[in-house]
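Weekly sync notes, structure subgroup
Attendees: PM, AL, DS (notes)

Item 1: joint prediction request from the bench team. They want all three components modeled as one assembly rather than separately. Inputs as received:
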Amino acid sequence: METTNPMRPYLGTLVGVKDLATDIKLFQVELNDSQACERFTYLPGQFAFLSAFGVGEAPFGLASIPSRGPALDFAIAKVGTVTAALHAMEEGSIVGVRGPMGNCFPMEEIKGKNVIVLGGGIGGAPLRPVIHTILDQREDYGHLTILWAARHPSLLVFTDEYDDWRAAPRTELHLTVDQGDESWTDNVGLITELLEKVAPSPENAVTITCGPPIMIKFVMLTLQKLGFTAEQMITTLEAKMKCGIGKCGRCNLGEKFVCVDGPVFTYTEISQFLESFV
Amino acid sequence: MKATTRKDLIAWLTRLMEEYTVIAPAVVGDNVLYKRVASTDEIAFDFTRTDMSPKEHFFPDTQAILAITKGHGEVSLAEPPLEREQVVFGVRPCDARGLKVLDALLLEHQPADAYYAERREKTTLIGLACPEMWPGCFCTSLDSAPDEAGDMDAMLTEAGDSYLVQIVTKKGEDLAASLPLSKASQKRPQPKLSSESASVPSQEVWRQHFDDGVWARLADRCLSCRVCTYVCPTCRCFDVRDDVTQSGVEGSVIQRLRAWDSCLSEGYRRIAGGHDPRPTKMQRLRNRFYCKFHYCPQDFGPVACVGCGRCIVACPVSIDIAEMLGDVARLVDET
Amino acid sequence: MSESMETTIRDRARDLLEQEEVHCVIGYERGPRGDVRPAFIYQAEDAERLVWNQECGHNLVVYLHDRKLPLRKGEEPPRVAIVAKPCDVRALNVLLHEGQVARERVFVIGIACPGMWEDGEGSPLQARCRRCKERVPVLYDTLVGEPPEVEDVEEDWADLAELEAMTAEERLAFWVQEFQRCIRCYACRQACPGCYCYECVAEQVDPAWMGIAIDLPEVFFYHVMRAYHLAGRCVECDACERACPVGIPLSLLNRKIAKEVADLFGYRSGGDPQTPPPLATFKRDEDLPL
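Output from the run, pasted for the record:
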């Protein structure tokens, strides 16, 4: 068996480990083998499996874009055994990477449109490549509206980038938390409430949402109320996975596999699923 | 039609054991299972249907898919050694069809499953036609037959003291080159068919009846015991987890294991953090049947059931896949 | 006798459902292939499906595990009726001890039991029935059938004699040989009324008490662990052994431990809903024979 074995990871080194929020860290991985680096071309929306050797592996959205550097960024919350093992690692540790996997956001197709990005908590991670792509090719896209939410200010991700986002032309950033703290002066409330307040126009627009399943569900409903069609609503879903390549049979929603038919889906597709993702 | 004698067959199998891993039906306690045999004495020539399918010889219940060594800040990976050539003797048409289904599920869409691919490539299937259909069998309802040779490399049909031999593929021809064959002096006996049948509903029917109460009623008695998944020739869900086999100051030796799992397991879809899109027993049982009869045909082509009847026999609470198909077909009549 | 018991069970079920005293009656029915299987009756008119005979071997108490929760948020859990043989009722007592089921939520249709056949009509009774001393459940809301004549039952623990005559090495070799066949399907656990953990030790990831391999060290650990978790709780109904697809004699393992508990504590599980199991009881002045 050669390296065409899709269950065999590339070896990578943690070149950066940074605290993003409470129990959320940004891991930056560079693949050790230069051939692997060349093979690993990825697009916004794709994901990869990270191995904490000795514990196991799990899928994580890629939070970087190749044009901004060789490192693969992953924003990871500590919720289980693999993530706990990753959180215990320091820079220089060796991890495994399998990927890139999945489909991608239709960044080409949405050129010229206004883009509304809605991120809830750690759901912001796979949306960061969308924001970076638009900022780096600013003229190719219309107005960018970012709605960014978390349960608490200590759980907001990429806070060090907010000024850059706000500073970009034709770009606005709105923040909200379920519950503020002493220093919080911005919106308090659910992202759906913020969405109704901002009320972006569906005219020549697409929405890209990511967050907990229940948030995605209610954001979709609110967007519909605001006049967005199912085809204008794009989201990315997560599921428990073991292979990421459509073999282990686990991540299906009806006849669609989140790993190969997704993780990016339009609401049109989601409404045709036999099973609910919530 | 060619034929060989039982004596010649046994001698041939014995010779094969020198070069190949020969797997054949063998008695193990109260069961008959496809096992590696070291002598033809171990072969249960008069078996009916084995209790487990031969899929474990292509998709093992436990397999180390990677060998990992960690130490001094370094990690190295190694893949398992190459597999030995195998011969599975005594494969029934339903199980051969089961392997064709697994081929569609594991090999058709890139990237293919490298481990299954290797074993499949290195195995020759020498089948044995069924003399009759047994209780629970309904292969004839799923485009197969007790004497269907098309999914094997060669098929033998017992006829008195001899076996009629059908060569199907080049692989079968090559392996059977050392089996003495003569012109058959009789016609191939026809298997006794049973009156059991199951009507497989159309894809549209499955789509329409996803929310019908029939699934909750069926799930009531399901124990989520998962025996059906494990005896099934086409079920292939698996789990992957690292297993530290040695650990010390110098580092650790780890095996990344792949093992059978079942979509019926409670928590099958629960992610760290707690979300579970399939929390009820009904949803999981329904998913298993839909996977077999709706999702697999949509995604990969074949229906993922071969009518072998093992799940019908094994289920401790008599959940009957053929009966279920009849229930679904009846739903159409009622609407 | 069987026929009139069957009629009585159907009548009781019909009444309970008509009077909306229960949401569901859990009993037995005969499937189209002829084998007896668990039945869930929700409508009075379906009570006709219920049967009673000596093939009604399943321990239906296992189904109380997933009837603990309300059907809808904010409501009470549903009340169910259950057809229960003496061994099944012992299992119910264990669940009552452990607070898994509220007594008022279960209507017990107790059966005076003639014993279950091993393999269809005319075959001998199952081993557990041959050794059964009680043919009337110790707890019920209604009793169906007349207490049968109890045969001269074998002395307790005779089935363990061969095992107990083995040396420790022989006994280990015996169990290794039996567990070789185990495919770790967990049918034994799923069929067991006493196994209701939300997350089984065998499947826990954090900590990972055991790996996922379907191999001897793991399956050995699983079976011994499960047997010990059932110590003082197992009611020896043998549902586990009957569910096993590869015929592992789990009864021997569970009964051996039950015998140890009986010898140490003078306790057999499920005898009544009040006496708590010894291994879940702490007594300051415990006097154990050592």
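Discussion: The first strand of chain A starts at residue 10 and ends at 21.
Action: AL to compare against the crosslinking data before next sync.
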